Fold this protein.
Amino acid sequence: MKKIVIIGSGGSGKSTLARKLGEKLKRKVYHLDVLFWKPNWVGVPKDEQRKVQNELVKEEEWIIDGNYGGTMEIRLNAADTIIFLDISKTICVFRAFKRMVQYRNKTRPDMGKGCKEKFDPEFFKWIWQFPTKSRPQILEQLKQLSNDKQIIILKSPKEVNKFLHRF
C-alpha cells in the first residue's frame, strides 16, 4: 500500500479516510478538491487536471482522494491500492448536509481556497443519483484493472472504521 486512491460519492468520507490513513501510514495526502477548485468555485480545466495528476502519480508513495471521473484512469492505473467507499446515498446526503452546515460560509480544510461551503442542489442531486449513475461505471472500471492491484470496497462507516483499525 504505497500508492492509494480513495473514490466514492460526495459525503462518503473520502477526505476523512485519506487524512486518517495518511496519519497512520505517514503518507502525503492529496485532496483533488484542493487542487482542482480555484476561489469562488472556479474549476481547473481538464488538461491541467491531467498534467497535475500525471506528476503526482510519479511520486513513490501517496494517497489521493477524489473522483474526477474524466481523469480517474490516471490514478487507477498508477495505484497499487484502490479503496471504493460504496456508502449508502442516505448516509452520504446526511453527511454532505451536516458538512454544509458545519462549514457554512467557510472553506473546509479539504477544499480549494476561497470555495466557501454553500448549498448546491446539483451536488446533492449528484450524490442521490450516484448509486445508479456513477457506481456502475466505477465498478466496471475496477473490474478492468490488472489483478496486481488491491481493490477494497467498504460499504458502511463500520467497515471503514474496522479497516482503519487494522493499521
In short: The mean pLDDT is 95. Residues 150 and 163 are 14 Å apart (CA to CA).
